[in-house]
Design a protein that fits this description.
It is found in: Nucleus. The protein is of the alpha+beta class. The chain has 3 helices and 12 strands; from the N terminus they run E-E-E-E-E-E-H-H-E-E-E-E-E-E-H. The strands form 6 sheets. It has a two-stranded antiparallel sheet. A two-stranded antiparallel ribbon has the order 3-4. The longest helix has 8 residues.
Length: 194
């Protein structure tokens, strides 16, 4: 029978979907506002949708419901997910054996180690993260703290020197710690006594 007066029916709300508001997935039509994950109700698009028969899910909920179960099957690279999906109404414990793991991890994660082992800047004493780290004198420094201790000039690998855990530009280092005398920049003239 022909469908007079409208488009296809929405796969979620069963109301008419007109062309201007239509999203098609798995041979079915949806309103843009009805194109939501059936578990968590997050809005979907062509890159985040995962269809299973007549159901649509975000990739995370689809993985929780239909993906592999057990130790070693996480949601991303190198992850082990402990999220059961119970808060989303997903019954994931059907047929999957309980793992015999201790309730607290015996080895802290890489992330936990990174948060504990964050380097401290010798100049300001605050944490130095990888995005802002510059190495000088064998220690990590903030880019903004990587300056001469005397003149405050910003330093680079070509003009930095260190002494006793502090950084100096080559000019200030030579003036304050270099050799003294004629030809070394400290004395320009020698007084003669007659």
């Amino acid at each position: 029978m022909p469908n007079w007066g409208g488009g296809a029916k929405c796969g979620a709300c069963e109301k008419t979907v007109y062309h201007a508001e239509e999203i098609q997935c798995n041979g079915r039509s949806f309103h843009k506002t009805c194109f939501l994950c059936m578990a968590c109700r997050k809005a979907l698009d062509s890159t985040t949708v995962a269809a299973h028969e007549s159901e649509i899910y975000c990739k995370t909920c689809y993985g929780r419901k239909y993906g592999p179960k057990g130790v070693g099957f996480g949601q991303g690279a190198g992850c082990l997910s402990t999220d059961t999906g119970d808060h989303l109404g997903l019954n994931l414990h059907q047929g999957s054996p309980k793992s015999a793991r201790p309730s607290t991890p015996t080895n802290p994660s890489k992330f936990a180690k990174m948060m504990v082992d964050v380097d401290k800047c010798p100049r300001c004493g605050k944490s130095v993260y990888a995005a802002e780290k510059i190495m000088g004198g064998g220690k990590p420094w903030h880019k903004t703290c990587f300056r001469c201790a005397i003149c405050g000039k910003s330093l680079e690998s070509t003009n930095v020197t260190d002494k006793d855990g502090e950084l100096y530009c080559k000019v200030c280092y030579a003036k304050n710690f270099g050799p003294k005398g004629i030809g070394f920049g400290g004395l320009t003239q020698v007084e003669k006594k007659e």
